[in-house]
Amino acid sequence: MVLTVRTISPDRHVLFNASQPSVSFLQTPAWGQVKSEWRNESLGWFDEQDRLVGAGLVLYRQLPKVKKYLAYLPEGPTIDWDAEDIGVWLRPLAEHVKAAGAFGVRVGAPVVVRRWGPDTIKAAIADERIPRLSEALPDEVNHTHTHLRDSMRQLGWRPPDEEEGFAAGQPRFVFQLPTAGRTPEELLAGMNQLWRRNIKKAAKLGVTVRQGERDDLARFHPLYVETAERDHFTPRPLSYFETMWDALRAEDPDRIRLYLAEHEGDLVAATTWVRVGGHAWYSYGASSTAKREVRGSNAVQWQMIQDAVAAGCTVYDLRGITEGLEADDPHLGLIQFKVGTGGEAVEYLGEWDLPLNALLYKAFDVYMKRRG
C-alpha cells in the first residue's frame, strides 16, 4: 500500500472525524483555532484510489528567530495504528512536514497499552511496595503495542524525555469511565461509598447544576483562578476560554459545554465538558474553598456523567493522572478522587518524536525546558 499526505480543508477534516468512532478533540480543526500561538494545518492520508483514509491536525511551533518548526499532532493523527507496517503511514507525514519547514515531528499515538480497574488501583495504593501505577499488575494488556513500539524505534522515532507530571505534553496516563450500555443507576452503583454519599448530600443540601452560556465564563474564571492558587498551577486567562468556546461551538454547537454548580446563589463548582462523537471529556474544573462541605464538585461531575450517557457516549474521560501512588505524593488525591467514580486508569503508547534536523531539534528541546 502506498499513501500520500497533503493538506485538506477544515470542512473535509470535520467530515472525516465525524465518520470515526473516536477522535480526540485535540485532533479537530477547531483546536487549531484555540492554539493561536501555533500555525495549524489539517492533513489527509490518501490511498492509491485517492480516497481519504486518515487525517490529522498539525500544530507548528516556531523555533525562536528561525523559520523552522516543531510539527505536533497531539493525541493523533487518526490513522491505522494497528497496521503491519506503520511506516507506510508515518513516512509520508514526515516528508510533508519537513517540506513545510519542520525540524522535528511529535505524534501522540492514541493506542491503549494497559488498563487498571478501580479495585486494582486501590490495592496498589494500599501496598507500600508499589510506588507507581506502572509497577502494579494491570487488568488488561494490549500485547500488539510491542510490535508498534519496536517498529517506531526502527523508523527513528523515540519517546521524549519522560518527566514527572505533565511537562512532556499530553499525559500518557488518563482516567476513564466506560459508559457504553450502562444506565445512570448502574454507574452510580459502581461508584464508591464516598462518591455516592457526596452526590446524595449535595442534592439534599440544595446544590443545583445547570449548563451555562458564554457569558457565564466570566463567573467560571474567578473560581478557576482561585483553584489555581490553591492547587499551585498557572491559570489561563479568561480570553483563552472565550476563544475555546467560540472555536469549538463554531465547529459543532454541542462540542463544548459549561456546567455550573450553585448553592443558595453561590457558585461552588464549575467545569467544562467537551465531546466528539461517543467520547466526552472533563476538560477544566474549578471549585470554591468556601462551602466545600456541600460537595459541588461531586454534583457537577455526576451531572456531566449522566449527560454523557444521554448523549450516547461510550467513554467519560476525566483526563490526566500521574503515576505516583505513595502516601506523600502530591497528586495522589487526584487519583483517589477519580477512582471513586468506579472507572479505570488507562495508559496510552503516548508521545513520540522524530528529529528531522538533530541540531535544531536539540536546540528547541533546551529552549522549551528553560521556559518551564
TrEMBL record:
Keywords: Acyltransferase, Cell shape, Cell wall biogenesis/degradation, Peptidoglycan synthesis, Transferase. Residues 207-372 form the N-acetyltransferase domain. It comes from the Bacteria. Belongs to the FemABX family. This is Lipid II:glycine glycyltransferase (Peptidoglycan interpeptide bridge formation enzyme).
